[in-house]
Amino acid sequence: MQTRSRVPLPVAALAVLALLAGCAPEPPAPSPSSSRTASATPTPTPTRTVDPIAGMSLEDRVGQLFMVGTSVDGVTPETLAAVQSQRIGGVFLHGRSSAGVDATSSLVSQFTGANPTTSPALWVATDQEGGDVQVLSGPGFDDIPSAVTQATDGCDTLRASALGWAGSLSKAGVNMNLAPVADIVTSPDTAGENPPIGALDREYGYDEATVAACAGAFAQGMRAAGVLPTFKHFPGLGRVAGNTDVSADVVDTAIGPDSPDVDVYRTLLAEGPAVVMVSTAVYQQIDPAAPAAFSPPVVTGLLRGRLGYDGVVTTDDLSAAAQVQQWAPGDRAVLAIRAGVDLLLVSADPSVFPEMYDAVLKQAENDPSFAALVDASARRIVELKSSFR
C-alpha cells in the first residue's frame, strides 16, 4: 500500500470546508410515550431449530472459513479450484480494474457458477472504499471520493451515495464490501504520520461520534442495496506509525479497552448486519504478545466478550502481509481461529491457501475443542449468509 503526503489546503479552501455540514451523529430516536399501553402478545408456539451446518461435512465446514483472493483481471486457477473442491466461503476481487460492471459480472459468474449447488451461497467481496482504495471502476461504477471528502457531505447525502455505489456492486455480482473504515485518526495535522489510514485519507474523522455517524451512514447505504458491509480495522489502525501490509512489527501503544477507537464499534454494530475485520497490528495495552487477529484477549475477550458481538469476524490479509510473515501459513490460520475469528482472508497470495486449509482441517480432526470452534465459526457464516441476501 503506497502512501502519499497531504497537500495543505489554501486558507480560503479551509474556510469553505469549515462551513460545510459534516457527517454529524444523528440524534437518538424519541422514546415511545409512556402513556401508550402495550397490547398483550400471545405466547408463541415453540419451534424446532435446525442447525444450519448439520448436513455439512467437516471438510465443507472448514472451507466456509476461508475467503480467497482472485485477480480482478481474470480467474485465478487456484481460487477457482478452492471454490469447486474445498467449497470456500468467499472470494475476494484483488487488484485494480477499470473494466466496468459488465466485465466484473462476467468474472464473478465464473466463481458463482462453479460453487456446488449443495453449498451455502458464495460471498464475493472487494475493497470499494473510495479515494485511493477502490478496486472496481470503469463503465457503471462511479469514482468514489475518499472518506475524508465523503464526511463533508452530511449523513443523508453519504447514505444515498453509498446506496448508489452498492447498487453498482450488486449489479456486478459483488455482495460484500470490505468497507467502511471505522478507524479514528487523532488529528488532521498529524494524519500523514499514520501510513495505513490518515496518509491515504481513509478516515471519516477525528472523534468517535463523527466516525460512527459517517461509517454508519455508508454501511446503511450498502445494506439497502443488498451488499454486506465490513467495519475495519478493529480495534483501530488510526494511531500506528506503520502499515501492516508492508511493514513488520507494527505496534499500537495508545489504544486500550476503553478507547474511543473501540467504543465506536458499540454504535456501529447495533445498527444492522455487518462483519468486523480485525487488524494484524499488536496492541500493547490489550495484548502485547500477539497480533490482534491471533489474540484471544482482543477477539474473544474484548470484541465478543466486552462488546457482546456474536457476529462474523474476519481477519485482515493473512497471506502476503509483512506483519504475519514470521508465522507459517498454517499456523496463521489455526491461531486466528483459536483467537475467535471466523473468516480467514487470504486475499493477496492465494497460493498459501492449501497449506492453511490442510492445517485447519488436521487440527479439527485431532482436537475436539478446536473442532467446536470450527463449527461455531461455520455456523455464524452460514447463518449470516442465509439471513442477509
Description:
By secondary structure, the protein is an alpha/beta fold. It has one domain (56-387): Glycoside hydrolase, family 3, N-terminal domain (TIM Barrel, Alpha-Beta Barrel). Helix content is 36%, strand content 12%. The chain contains twelve helices and 13 strands. The strands form three sheets. It has an eight-stranded parallel sheet. Helix 6 (155-171) packs parallel to helix 7 (208-224). The longest helix is centred in the C-terminal third of the chain and has 20 residues, at 368-387. The two termini are 32 Å apart.
Q: Could you provide a short overview of the structure?
A:
The chain is of the alpha/beta class. Helix content is 36%, strand content 12%. It has helices at residues 11-19, 58-63, 77-86, 101-112, 147-150, 155-171, 208-224, 260-269, 296-306, 329-339, 353-366, 368-387, and strands at 66-71, 90-94, 123-126, 128-130, 133-134, 176-177, 228-234, 251-252, 275-278, 282-283, 287-291, 313-315, 344-346.
SSE layout and pairing:
Elements: H1 11-19, H2 58-63, E1 66-71, H3 77-86, E2 90-94, H4 101-112, E3 123-126, E4 128-130, E5 133-134, H5 147-150, H6 155-171, E6 176-177, H7 208-224, E7 228-234, E8 251-252, H8 260-269, E9 275-278, E10 282-283, E11 287-291, H9 296-306, E12 313-315, H10 329-339, E13 344-346, H11 353-366, H12 368-387
Parallel strand pairs: 1-2, 1-13, 2-3, 3-6, 6-7, 7-9, 8-10, 9-12
Antiparallel strand pairs: 4-5, 10-11
Helix pairs in contact: 6-7, 7-8, 10-11, 11-12
